[in-house]
Amino acid sequence: MAGTDRTIDIPLRPSPAIILVEPQLGENIGTAARAMANFGLWDLRLVTPRDGWPNERAIAAASRADHVIEQVRVFDTLEAATADLSMVFATTARRRDMQKQVYGPEEGAQRIVSHIASGAKAGLLYGRERWGLYNEEVAIADAIVTYPVEAAFASLNVAQAVLLMCYEWRQQADKGEVLPFDGGLDPAAPREELIGLFLHLEETLDRTGFFKTDDKRPTMVDNLRNVFTRAGMSSQEIRTLRGVISSIDRAHLRQRPGRAVNSDDEGTSSSD
Amino acid sequence: MAGTDRTIDIPLRPSPAIILVEPQLGENIGTAARAMANFGLWDLRLVTPRDGWPNERAIAAASRADHVIEQVRVFDTLEAATADLSMVFATTARRRDMQKQVYGPEEGAQRIVSHIASGAKAGLLYGRERWGLYNEEVAIADAIVTYPVEAAFASLNVAQAVLLMCYEWRQQADKGEVLPFDGGLDPAAPREELIGLFLHLEETLDRTGFFKTDDKRPTMVDNLRNVFTRAGMSSQEIRTLRGVISSIDRAHLRQRPGRAVNSDDEGTSSSD
C-alpha cells in the first residue's frame, strides 16, 4: 500500500458509474474496483456476473478498496443497470457498423466531466472478457469510447480498460489541479551561492593544475558551470558540494597532520 | 481478443523500456507485457524477478503478447538493466524526501517522446508490488513520475501503473510533437557512465573521510546522486567531472613527486 495515506477519509464525490456486463473473472472485478478507488470513483455495477456476487476472488483482488466493493450493485439487465443514468458511453476496441459518435478517452472523459458538473449522472459500459459488448448493448449507449491502441494487439484486459477511463476522468475533472505531491524540490539557491561554488571549484582546479592551458580555461569553466546550473541546486546542495571539494582537496593534510593548510576558506578541521 | 487484427504485423518502433524491479507475481509481469503490447511497447526488462524467468503464469497472463514475452531480458542489478539508457524515470506513488523533479504522466510521457525522437533511449522504473522502489533506486533516476491518484487510495497495481504510462506514451507519441527545450543539449550519457561517476566520487569521498558516520552515508550518497542526475549530463561532461575529481584528489602528489600514487584509475600524470 505504498503511498496510501489511511488517515485521510475517502471522498465519494460525483463520478461516473462503471458497469461491467457479464464479467467472467472475479480477479478482474476486484482489479477494476481497485483502479476505480485509485482515481476516486466508487459506483461499480455488475450485470449478471458469471460467478455470482459476492465473489471472494474479487474481494482479494480489490486490495482493500472496500468502499467500492461494499457498494457494488448487481442487476439482471443492462437496462436496469443504466436506468438512472443520462449519459452512457460504451467502451470497445472494435469498429461497429453503427451510426454512433466515437471518442478517444480524453474527449470522452471531458464530456462526462461536463455532464456530471451539470448535476446529471453518467456511466461507462465494459463488455465480457472474451468477446466484449454485443452490438445491441453498444446500441443503447450515447457514444463509443475507444483507446489509441496498437491495431495488431488491440484487446485490453477489462480492468486495464476500466483503469484508463478512471484515470482520464480524474485528469479532466482535476484539470489545473496539482499532483498528490510535487517535486518537494527545495528552492534553487540565490545566484551568489552558485557563483560562490563556481569560484571555490575553479580556485581549487587552478591550484591543482586541472586547466592544462590558459586558452582552454574559459571554455572548460563554462562547461563546468553549465552542468551545475542545470541541476538547479538548493543552498544545502551547494554547501554539500563545497564540502565534497574541500574533503577531497584536503585529504592529504589529514594523512599528514604536520603539514600546514595551504589554501583558502572554509577551514574544515583536519584533526581526525 | 476482440478488436485485435492478427493480419497486421506488430511494429517494433522506438519506445521506452519498461523495467520491473524485483517483480513478485508472474501475473503482473504478464499483464504488464500485455499492456505494453496494447500501446506498441516491447522492451521489457526484469531485475531479479522473485520466481525466476521464464514464468508460466506470466506467459498465461500476457494473453499472447508473445513478441514482448519472448524478448524479455533479466538483469542482476538495476544498474545493468539501465546501463544503455540515457533517460530514466522512476514511477512512485510516494513522496520522497529527495531533490528530484516530479512529473505527471502526461509531461513525463512528453519528455520521453522528445528524448526518443532525438535518437536516444529511455526507460521507466517500477518497483516491487509490496513496497515499490527503494530510495537508492529512485536516486539513480533523472526524475519521478507520479499519477494523479486519490491520496487515500494511492497504490496502483504494478501492471496498471505500467499501462498508464504506456497509454500516455502512445498518446503523446502520436501527437508527433517534439518539445523545443531538449534542442541544444548534447545527448545525456548512458546510465552506466553516470554510475561510473558516482562510484568514482563515492570511492574518493570514502577514502578522504567525507562521510563522518556510516549511518549517514546512504542519505548523503542519495543526495549527491540526485544533484548529478538532475543535471542530465553528457558523456563529455561526465568525463570532465571525473577529471575534476582526479585533479583535486591527486594535487598533493604533484607537489611532492616522490610519493607513490595511492589510489585508483585514470592515472593522470604527476610529472609536472
Would you mind describing this structure in some detail?
The structure is a homodimer of 272-residue chains. Chain A is of the alpha/beta class. The first copy, chain A, folds into 2 domains: 17-173, Alpha/beta knot (3-Layer(aba) Sandwich), CATH 3.40.1280; 191-255, Orthogonal Bundle (Helicase, Ruva Protein, domain 3), CATH 1.10.8. Helix content of chain A is 41%, strand content 10%. Chain A is built from 11 helices and 7 strands. Chain A has helices at 26-38, 56-61, 66-69, 78-81, 105-117, 135-139, 158-173, 191-207, 217-230, 235-249, 251-255; strands at residues 17-21, 44-47, 73-75, 87-91, 101-103, 122-126, 143-145. A 7-stranded parallel sheet of chain A has the order 3-2-1-6-4-7-5. The first copy, chain A, starts with 16 loop residues before the first strand and ends in a 17-residue tail after the last helix. At the A-B interface, helix 1, helix 7, helix 8, helix 9 and helix 10 of A face helix 1, helix 7, helix 8, helix 9 and helix 10 of B.
Secondary structure: helix percent of chain A: 40-55%
> What pair of chains forms the biggest interface?
A-B, 88 and 89 residues
Total number of helices of chain A: 11
Radius of gyration of chain A equals 30 Å
Low-confidence stretches of chain A: 257-272
Distance between the termini of chain A: 45 Å
Second CATH tier, the architecture of the largest domain in chain A: 3-Layer(aba) Sandwich
H/E series of chain A: EHEHHEHEEHEHEHHHHH
Q: Strand share of the residues of chain A?
A: 5-15%
| Form type of chain A | elongated
* Strand arrangement across the biggest beta sheet of chain A: 3-2-1-6-4-7-5
Name of the CATH homologous superfamily of the largest domain in chain A: SPOUT methyltransferase, trefoil knot domain
Mean of all residue-level pLDDT scores of chain A = 86
CATH fold naming of the largest domain in chain A: Alpha/beta knot
